[in-house]
Amino acid sequence: MKWFWVLIGWTATMALADDRAILLERFSQTEERGITIPPGDYILEGETPIPLPSNVTIQATGARFFFPDELPDRARRLMFAGENVSHLVWEGGEFVGRVFDPAEKVNSWLPNANTKGIEITTTEVGGTHDITFRNVRSHGVAGAVIGVHGWVEKGQETDVLAYAERVTIQDCTLLRSGKFMWDYG
């Protein structure tokens, strides 16, 4: 995580820089089927997700991925994404957000914010299989922390045309994460 100073008039504030470039560099250095994300805090805007490769183990134990403190109206953010991914193991890591809480007087995210940690989709040709998520944690994510989807035609969600197969989620702790009834008005 990089800090930088922003000068506004005569005052200075400290702001966080997005760590996407740091993680993209890590993902480009896949050696012997492995990516290690060092322990630490990473800020990700989530406007353009980091692509997930196939045939790799991602070790993220001790890494914390933070969504921005504030999001605009109807924000849609995603940190990591892949399509037709196979033979992926994701170990560890924590996704942190600020899901809307009606019990709080002040919320920096509106109820219509939608944030996701990891999303894997499948196309018509298929190919999403042998995916494992282990020891992933979350707190305050306003949407799915881990999403793995088969392929369906738009508007025909009951007819799956290509399945995501052999998906395992082990020992994950997802707190205050997901979409809640107050998110839908």
Find the count of extended strands (DSSP E, 2+ residues).
18
Mean pLDDT: 87
- Oligomerization state: single chain
Helical segment count: 1
Structural class, by secondary structure, is mainly beta
How would you characterize the largest beta sheet?
Answer: 5 strands, parallel
N-to-C order of helices and strands:
EEHEEEEEEEEEEEEEEEE
Low-confidence stretches: 1-15
Anisotropy-based shape: globular
Radius of gyration: 17 Å
The portion of residues forming beta strands comes to 35-45%
Amount of helix: under 10%
Number of domains: 1
Main-sheet strand order equals 3-6-9-12-17
Alpha-carbon distance between the termini? 35 Å
Structure, described:
The protein is mainly β and 185 residues long. The chain has one domain (18-184). It is built from one helix and 18 strands. It has one helix at residues 20-28, and strands at residues 3-8, 11-16, 34-36, 40-43, 50-51, 56-59, 63-66, 76-83, 86-91, 94-96, 114-121, 129-134, 137-139, 146-148, 151-152, 160-162, 165-170, 173-175. The chain has a five-stranded parallel beta sheet with strand order 3-6-9-12-17, with no helix packed on it. The protein has a five-stranded parallel beta sheet with strand order 4-7-10-13-18, with no helix packed on it. Strand 1 (3-8) and strand 2 (11-16) form a beta hairpin. The protein is globular and about 45 Å long. The protein starts with a strand and ends in a 10-residue tail after the last strand. The model is unreliable at 1-15 (pLDDT under 50).
